[in-house]
Amino acid sequence: MGKNDLLIRAINQQWKRGYLEYLLHAGQRKLDTSFKQSTGQLFVGNIARQFGKSYWAVSKAIELAIKKPKARLKFGTAFQTDLTEFILPTFDAVLTECPANLKPKYKVQGSKWVFPNKSEIKLVGLDKTPNSLRGNVIDMIVIDEAAFVD
């Protein structure tokens, strides 16, 4: 078994465990540590532009979706156009190394990522559907660029 095979195997194991910290840079890892240590229901990351907040948030949503079968997550942005301009490409970037057996499929109808374990991450533009973050059972809500939400 070659070095490349071992690396692929290690990456696949990280994905199988829903442990994507290896994808994060040092600053995002500090943010991640703060997130994991938070005890409340609300966590706010007040960080400068171009830090990789969206990438970090997408990785957290994907981790939970992999770890918890049938998880229900909502990922909101201030504007519907943000979903296609930067959120969907960010999901694609995070999922680059995702093994095929864990990789979700994006359903345009419903605007959601559906995972093989039946977890779902619903994407919502809050300018078009302001009440779309509501629901009975939601495991995580992410609001990206929350400062721009009315």
Order of strands in the sheet with most strands: 2-3-4-1-5
Please give the largest β-sheet.
Answer: 5 strands, mixed
Straight-line N-to-C gap? 55 Å
Strand segment tally: 5
- Bin the helical content: 25-40%
* Structural class estimated from helices and strands: alpha/beta
Global geometry: globular
Q: How would you state the average pLDDT, rounded? A: 92
- CA gyration radius, whole angstroms: 15 Å
N-to-C series of helices and strands: HHHEHEEEE
Specify the number of helices.
4
Low-confidence stretches: none
Task: Give the oligomeric state of the chains in this entry, treating copies of one chain as homo and distinct chains as hetero.
Answer: single chain
Percentage of residues in strands: 15-25%
Descriptive terms for the model:
150 residues; alpha/beta; five-stranded mixed beta sheet; 4 helices; 5 strands; 38% helix; 15% strand; globular
Fold and architecture overview:
The protein has about 150 residues and is of the alpha/beta class. Helices cover about 40% and strands about 15% of the residues. It contains 4 helices and 5 strands, in the order H-H-H-E-H-E-E-E-E. It has a 5-stranded mixed beta sheet, with helices on one face. Helix 3 (about 55-65) crosses helix 4 (about 80-95). The longest helix has 15 residues, at about 5-15. The protein is globular. The model has no long low-confidence stretch (mean pLDDT about 90).
